[in-house]
Amino acid sequence: MLTNGSNRSLEDIDKSGLVHAFSALYSQKDRDLVIWDHAEGLWLTTVDGDRYLDAAAGLWCTNIGYGRKELAEAAAEQMVRTSSVHCFAQFSNEPVIRLTDRLLDLAPENMRRIVYGNSGSDANDTQVKLVRRYNNVRGLPQKKKIISRLSAYHGSTIASGSLTGIPLVHRTFDLPIEGVLHTHMHDFHRRPSHIDTMDAYVRWLAEELEALILHEGPDTVAAFIAEPVTGAGGVLVPPEGYFRAIRAVLDRYDVLMIADEVITGFGRTGAWFASPEFGMGADLISVSKGITSGYFPMSACLISERVADVLYGEKADDGLFGHGFTASGHSVAAAVALANIDILEKEGLLANATRMGEVLLRRVREAVGGHELVGDIRGKGMIIGVEFDADRANGRPFADPTAVGSLLSKSALEEKLLVRGGHGRVLAAMAPALIATEADIEEIVHRFVRVVDRFADKLTVSGLKG
User: Fold this and answer.
1) Pairing mode, strands 384-388 and 374-379
2) Lowest mean pLDDT among 71-80, 92-101, 456-465
3) Do residues 269 and 246 touch, judged by C-beta distance below 8 A?
4) Which of residues 320, 346, 372 is at a domain's end?
5) pLDDT tens for each residue of 301-311
6) 3-state secondary structure 218-267
7) Does one domain contain both 431 and 390?
8) Domain of 432: which CATH number?
9) 47 lies in a domain?
10) How do strand 374-379 and strand 180-183 relate by DSSP bridges?
11) How far apart are the C-alpha atoms of 258 and 302, rounded to whole Å?
12) In 10 A of CB 188, how many CB atoms?
């Protein structure tokens, strides 16, 4: 047992004891470690003094940027006032009550109730339970299956990891669990070869979903879950009319729509919530990340009138709701969320996300859109994705996206630019803080051009382009 960690370097302690999320465990000991010391705005500084430009807002979450004292002060003040108080049974606290009122005011008008949690994963896990309870109370015990989509990311718990449509999250965990199904993702760049137009593609996707529901039996299918704009699975913006076509299918078979707004919520696409603009007609909405800009763990499940009326109408056992977490509705988290929303509103960051997002998309297209390796550039608001192809002319993807993606990631780190990847594809996703200025955008694009050049050189040497 270690008794004096101070005699060892931070890197030694980390590599001998810390399990890193979404990392290659076997080779972790051989990888260079980046240890952050402090952060401000869009910049992160390591313990060695190296500065990185974060074009990904951490894990898509620091919407108001790093180092905002307003949130630290709100947290400190509330910690002194209430420390850790819970919201079980009849107990509550002022910050979470005020946050609830504010969120319901900002949310789509059909939302009525909120269940709080700690992360996007547990929010989507909670949605699974809400869907099950909803149909049990309605006397439909067989109606429990949930349809997600391939390439979707919804979390990494047992339930949310099952909803996720990425093999990496299922690998060695015996996922997905029974009752979770997957249909096609909207990905026009990788569409089937027989489809030429966007309208035809939307029809095909809706028909595929309907066929799956009919195959399983409409009396067994309870809900469909989707991100308005797909994040980790590829920054995939839905085609015009896609969600309206999907919603029409769901309505035919009494299937709920769950909008996973963990990434898109709180300004990322230029609106408080992205789902209304795309016509999702959500019955349930999951949020996290941007609710506190990642400064404090918090999530929320927004429940529509349609679902809430059923849940609150149950008389058996007085409608006992046996669900919650120790930190559900945490007063400090709620205080931080309120301060975060204040900044988003007062500084006009939703409008800035729209404005600067358009600049970012245009500048990236101008700078690298003609590169032989760039297959597609897409985005909405302050979230864009640049996808690389082995054969641009024919839209052919790389045979080994993991290995090639590692070259891209290494190239970005060497230029001290932080971007996100895309599981199962070679992608550079950029989602900077919503405070980004035009000068910030220019610096991001300037560095990204060098990243693409480095990547092309590494790819040539590696022999992986094939």
Assistant:
1) antiparallel
2) 456-465
3) no
4) 346
5) 999 999 999 99
6) HHHEEEEEECCCECCCCCECCCCCHHHHHHHHHHHCCCEEEEECCCCCCC
7) yes
8) 3.90.1150.10
9) yes
10) unpaired
11) 10
12) 17
Phi, then psi, of 173 in degrees rounded to 5: -110, 5
Do residues 420 and 429 lie in contact, with contact meaning Cβ atoms separated by under 8 Å? Answer: yes
Same domain, residue pair 57 and 201:
no
Name the β-bridge partners of 304.
111
Burial 9-26 (b: 16+ CB within 10 A, else e): eeeeeeeeeeeeeeeeee
368, amino acid identity: V
Q: How many domains does the chain have?
A: 2
Q: Under 8 Å CB-to-CB from 361, ≥6 apart: which residues?
A: 377, 379, 384
Computed over every residue of the chain, the mean pLDDT equals 96
CA distance 209 to 355: 35
* Residue 25 placed within a domain: no
For the chain, percent of residues with pLDDT exceeding 90: 94
Q: Which two tokens stand for residue 152?
A: 């979707």
**Domain membership of residue 76 as a residue range:** 70-346
Digit-coded pLDDT (tens) for 309-331 = 999 999 999 999 999 999 999 99
Asked which of 107-116, 435-444, 456-465 is least confident by mean pLDDT, the reply is: 456-465
Per-residue confidence (pLDDT) for residue 31, from 0 to 100: 86
Same-domain status, 288 and 376: no
> What is the spatial distance between Cα 54 and Cα 358, in angstroms, rounded to a whole number?
18
Whose CA is closest to 98, among 369, 383, 317, 341?
A: 341
Give phi and psi for 219, each to the nearest 5. Answer: -75, -5
